[in-house]
Amino acid sequence: MEASSTANQCRLFSPPMKTADEHVNSNRDLVSNKITTHEFDNQFQDSGTEDSVSGTEDDDDDDDDDGNDQEDTSISDCESGISGPNTDQSQLLHEIIKRRFISGLDSLGLDTSVVSIHRNSCSSFTGQARLQSFHIFARAISKKCGGNANLKYAWYGASRDEIEKIVSHGFGHCGDAENKGWFGRGIYLSPDDSPIDSVKSSIVDNDGLKHVLLCRVILGNMEVVHPGSEQCYPSSEEFDSGVDNLVTPKKYIVWSTHMNTHILPEYIISFRAPPCSKGERRIQAPLRKPNSPWMPFCTLISVLSKFLPPQTVSLISKYHTDHRENKISRHELIRLVREMVGDKLLTAVIKSYRDKQLKASTDFSTTNSSSKSHRRNSEFKQS
């Protein structure tokens, strides 16, 4: 029975990816609120509401609501695992998700096409248990944080195989191989308005498709996690999750201790996109300035060591070594350093170095000019 339910969940990836949603009639008591697609759009934009929502896949099985079409005209709460919206609402909901995904990719979105969007039916017994667990923890964090669990939408990119395992069994490891330990031991998710990092983490499958998960995440009270951190759980009872930047976050960090209680995968988005390196160049190109100030990388590391923690400087040195050994591209090295250091500090350091170089050059020119003038005067007197 369990194997059959799990198989149904995994059918989300079966070509041509147009299968009907699974309908589950248990755990109706978990339903808290039902919302319309208009409200879902608003939630997607501010990602600050309490109730988790989900829609169904485009299909013609509108008669599976047991005569409750009038009652279930809104999007069913994913925590119930029950399908509710009609085809028009489902299409509108998917259009909202697609629009949000593409718009968050900036110029890379011009060459990205969404092939399909599937809802995680959470139809297995363990899937239902994970739904209940998420619901319970959301309520607990809400009480702990004064009524706001800080639920957000977030993206998670991985290979097709890994996403299948997450849908069937939950998260089984923390962070990807390249960024292991970068922001501590946890699951790194991208904010709903900036999926680019998750797209970079996704891997092309045999059909030429990439896949990302759209998840609901319990963030609670977030703490800033600095690059190079070895943190693997909240630093105190006050905090529940991590973030790289409180003002303009690019990464949410859900600790390994919370990865299967604070993250609820709701949708699987399959898409075609240009190679990651190509996308990075296109996104970063507008940020680069021709003839920009330059300084030797070793000098940069030496100067940064005065401002950054030793572990961060060590990580920058490692990435520099990886670049010299052709393990990562120059664009990737620059991107990593910018994310770890921040443009403000980098600009200040490079400007300071440039000013010193200009001053040294000016002093040399002045000294050299004075020396030549002195020699000319001496020669004139001798003649």
UniProtKB/TrEMBL annotation:
All residue ranges annotated as the RST domain in the record: 288-359
Protein name, UniProt field: Poly [ADP-ribose] polymerase
Region (Disordered): 1-86, 361-383
Key words, A-Z: Developmental protein, Nucleus, Stress response
Domain of life the protein comes from: Eukaryota
GO (cellular component) term, any one: nucleus
Bias-annotated ranges (Acidic residues): 56-74
Matches recorded under PROSITE patterns: PARP_CATALYTIC (PS51059), RST (PS51879)
Nucleus as UniProt keyword: yes
Subcellular location field: Nucleus
